[in-house]
Amino acid sequence: MSQQNLESLDVGAIRDEFPILEREFDGQQVVYLDNAATTQTPDPVVDAMSDYYRESNANIHRGIHHLSQEASILYEEAHDRVAEFINADGREEVIFTKNTTESENLVAYAWGLNELGPGDRVVLTEMEHHASLVTWQQIGEKTGADVEYIRIDDDGRLDMDHARELIDDDTAILSAVHVSNTLGTVNPVSELTDLAHEHGALSFIDGAQAVPNRPVDVEAIDADFYAFSGHKMAGPTGIGVLYGKQHLLEEMEPYLYGGGMIRKVTYEESTWGDLPWKFEPGTPQIAEAVGLEAAIDWLEDIGMERIQAHEEEIARYAYEQLESEEDVEIYGPEPGPDRGGLVSFNVEGVHAHDLASIMNDHTIAVRAGDHCTQPLHDKLGVPASTRASFYVYNTREEVDKLVAALDDARQLFA
Ligand code: 7TS
């Protein structure tokens, strides 16, 4: 990414599409640095959803009338748009879920529960989000499969020697986070997927923190499953995606049953409809699908490479500013190609929750806690951390405000 291209990203114009960023509390403008939890939603996405409700709202796949046909087409085409965005083969490989968590559960239940048994191994990483960690732990308990974790090293990167040890012929599935929501580490997901495939195992990649801010090509990664959430990529809440290779999804049993996912039903038995509808029973998230499509259009108009470059630049700046403070400890790798756009840290003598509360006094939104990675925090030896996470609309000035607010915390608590 050349400097010129980076400069051509007009953050001011981008911010104009987010009225929420103008909000003030106690006379201070919001500094929104909690993007790993959820990103803000630009006007074109809000407009697309309200246009849908104003102009096209109807239930799908059941009406002969014009509005139902129109809504059905919008909903179906949103699948095509997602497929194109992540380079899947087509809508058959794109299932709309509620969020990344549900995508994880779908595979764990529809595939894991049926395929796993004693002697099988599920390989995770020590930096998994609870969405994957808790889910596979439960499937392990129900099926007798072992759940093992690829170690992280002192820099917060995966120990790939340990990965090669753990992923063996007993391994049935590897589930790894693409970008860690706590450490910011960008994992070598193609390499991990290749390792899994060499041993006949499947690979599930949790892309919740990757798809929003970098180009993702599921074919290039060769993942069998890949999951992400609309609300972390300038889209609405209530919609997530499970990508799956078509032949695997064909073989899998449904996860949820009901209307809209069947082919033929008698009092005795039922058969299932085509992909992806087989995994989308009941009235789905139609307006949210429209919103997700609008979010993808919006992101691609800016360009995923430029979004990645901007976010990395702001995160690098934040890392460097925080690192120069003597009493700040930062978790995860140094800025570089394998670090994404967030920084988790602690200030000596100040609890993360107190720090976040001081930040809030300055109307700076950060997250404090374990970020749904409790075992990882145990491993880091801290109960909690404070996390600043960035997106395309954040600026260096906002990072400066964060760093300046640290002094207040020291005065009060340290
Ligand atoms: N996987 C990762 C890596 C995540 O960061 C999150 C959410 C999820 C899965 C679950 O996504 P959901 O849309 O199903 O909730 N992470 C965070 C976070 O870091 N702070 O709030 C939510």
TrEMBL record:
Positions of the Aminotransferase class V domain: 31-402
Alphabetically ordered keywords of this record: Pyridoxal phosphate, Transferase
Cofactor(s) it depends on: pyridoxal 5'-phosphate
Record-listed E.C. numbers: 2.8.1.7
GO molecular function, one term: pyridoxal phosphate binding
InterPro entries from the UniProt entry: Aminotrans_V_dom (IPR000192), Cys_dSase_SufS (IPR010970), PyrdxlP-dep_Trfase (IPR015424), PyrdxlP-dep_Trfase_major (IPR015421), PyrdxlP-dep_Trfase_small (IPR015422)
UniProt xrefs under SUPFAM superfamilies: PLP-dependent transferases
Catalysed reaction, written as an equation: (sulfur carrier)-H + L-cysteine = (sulfur carrier)-SH + L-alanine
GO biological process per UniProt: cysteine metabolic process
Pfam families in UniProt: Aminotran_5 (PF00266)
Protein name: cysteine desulfurase
